[in-house]
Amino acid sequence: MSVTQRRTRKAAAVALVAAVALSAAACSKKDESGGTTADGKIKLVVDSFGEFGYDELIKTYMASHPNITIEQRKTTKLDDYKPALVKYLAAGTGAGDVVALEEGIINEFKAQPDNWVDLKQYVGDLSADYLSWKYDAGKTADGSKLLGLPTDVGGLAMCYRNDLFKKAGLPTDRDEVSKLWPTWDKFIEVGKDYKAKTGKALIDSVTTEFSAIMTQLGEPLFYDRQNNVVAGTSQSVKGAWDKAVQMIEISSKTATWSDDWSAGFKKDTFAVVACPSWMLGIIETNSGPDNKGKWDVAAVPGGGGNWGGSWLSVPTQSKNPKEAAELAAFLTNADSQVAAFKAKGPLPSNLKALDNPDFQAYKNPYFSDAPVGAIFGAGAKTLQPVYLGPKHAAIKERAFEPALQSIEQGKVAPDKAWTTALAEAEKQAK
């Protein structure tokens, strides 16, 4: 999952202090990062961000492994998660025994393979179990080491509030809603109509649509496959940027992942969110139980796309690498991926999970019993990988998203913001 907000200087300072404090705490209490408990059990720590759907799975694993106790450390925001992990790795202590690596940051971490356990030595070759491109992306550049086991992929849809659509006189049936926006231009028209009828914005922020559209348009994005920064000449980046700028008039201008964004789900600040499968759990968490049945899932404009997805890795600093690797294998096996999908929405990358009838038939009760297994699973095996490059996340989150937000806030003209984004992209790449 990719994320950054344009912060005030004070907020940035607070975030930095929090990250340093988190790292210091981990370094001062080494047993928190695994090892053994007071009663002699093996302790494993799982670090993740967002919603992976592991709560019940971890309980199941501990029940069948009475000699192991597992602690989850969840971080809400990826832009808090990554700096802390960087500090843990630099310090040689503090990281979880199993850590999640999102698609935008895994290439950067793979550049230091000595920090990571070769999972094959503990769980063998599992390549036949997963989408081949997803499994291969967890390997080192030369393919000699497997540093991450695949969790999910990021099939796209649009999540919408059917009650707010009804108030606006728009269709509420998911098939009819899908017909409203076969293209992004049609989507913008719906947004204008919604705003005219309600006085409110249709979408949260244009940065989510920017991320979705880029993946639909395909390579190259910020990098070519030789790791040259090509953001300034990429038709996918410019195409997504131009379309995002057009959407500003239908945006609530609420920075994604901010506190205002989280609160906006309950305040009806927006009615539609670009919705990779992993976003389902985040929407449910932010919206709360009172909004159950008010959300639904429709098709994404412009056809399919693949935004997001992660891997589970084991740092070499783990005191129990064998047990950690076996836990990672359990959390990413077919049955576990189906259970995680039903719990929080991450779309399986395990081939048996995608073929599982329980997955295919699953309807999400929070999202008006939307057949999310069918919606997200239909094109899962045909999803195409997009090469992201070593500093993809930093370029998107620190160059392009802040630039788009500056346009949303009326601070900078689009042309100047584009120039600023390109300059910052080059800086981040270095």
From TrEMBL:
Signal peptide: 1-26
Upper classification of the organism: Bacteria, Bacillati, Actinomycetota, Actinomycetes, Micromonosporales
PROSITE patterns: PROKAR_LIPOPROTEIN
PANTHER family assigned to the protein according to its UniProt record, in alphabetical order: ARABINOSE-BINDING PROTEIN-RELATED, SUGAR BINDING SECRETED PROTEIN
Keywords tagged on the record: Signal
Name listed for the protein in its UniProt record: Extracellular solute-binding protein
